[in-house]
Amino acid sequence: MNRRSMILSVPVFAVAAFAGAAWYATRSEPVGEATSVTPEIADALIRPYSPILGPENAPVTIVEFFDPACEACRAFYPVVKGIMSEHGDAVRVVIRYTPFHGEASEEAIQVLETARMQGVFEQVLEAVLRDQPRWASHGAPEPGLILQIAAGAGLDAEAAQTQMRAPDIVGILNQDRADVEAVGVSQTPTFFVNGKPLAPFGEAELRALVAEEVAAAKS
Questions:
Q1: pTM of the predicted model as reported, rounded to 2 decimal places
Q2: Sheet with strand 60-66: strands edge to edge
Q3: What are phi and psi of 189, to 5 degrees?
Q4: Which pLDDT tens digit goes with each residue over 121-131?
């Protein structure tokens, strides 16, 4: 393959990769009956420090094992936001970091945590996901871009460079890695709704499980 062909193939590959991720995120499988995890696993699903989207006291909790470099996580983000919007204050999302894509994932998580310190978490999260093809391409990862992208979403990049080295952030990464192993998560995104694993996986199944838990909470 010559240089021109290689350059032309990059956007084609990116589109194909995102399309594949979108298919993975939204495919539908037969609905099964969800059952809660064991108390030991339930203890590892949520930590007091975990980022929360939505009202903290919502009766229904979606736990998402999430990798900011994961294409399927990017494809599923608007689905999750849509579910939250549909159910108003009844649903919250707890994010558990799952750095399956190495250095780029870890740097993105560090940047997200500094964004949380600075009160701009959701803005930076959306920017990091929007520009994921720029910094997390499997063919040419560029983790150095993440801080620049986050700065465009309101992050104080100079302060973040110091905050990223905070022991608390290292501790969060280490605990989340331990919990990923304890829960048995092997791919992202992986969802639990009020302690019930999403199995089989799919957008329709997630919507149905959340709706079921919301209805139960209101009854």
A1: 0.83
A2: 52-53, 91-97, 60-66, 190-193, 196-197
A3: -75, 150
A4: 999 999 999 99
**Tell me: the pLDDT tens digits for 131-152?**
999 898 765 666 678 999 999 9
Cβ within 8 Å of residue 79, ≥6 positions away: 25, 26, 203, 206
Reported residue count of the chain is: 219
- Rounded Cα–Cα distance for residues 118 and 28 (Å): 38
Secondary structure of residue 66 in the 3-state scheme: strand
Can you give the pLDDT at residue 24? 52
Crossing angle of helices 3-26 and 71-86, in 10° steps, is 40
The gap between the terminal CA atoms of the chain, to the nearest Å, is 62
As a whole number of angstroms, the distance between CA 110 and CA 169 comes to 7
Per DSSP, helices labelled H in 27-166 are: 39-43, 71-86, 102-117, 121-130, 132-135, 145-152, 157-163
**Which DSSP state fits 37?**
P
Least confident range from 10-14, 15-19, 132-136: namely 10-14
How far apart, in Å, are the Cα atoms of 49 and each of 113, 118, 169, 214, 217?
A: 10, 15, 10, 24, 25
Token pair, residue 23, equals 């298919």
- Reported as a single tens digit per residue, the pLDDT across 22-42 is 555 555 544 446 688 888 899
Q: What secondary structure letter does DSSP report for 36?
A: P
Q: What is residue 88's DSSP assignment?
A: G
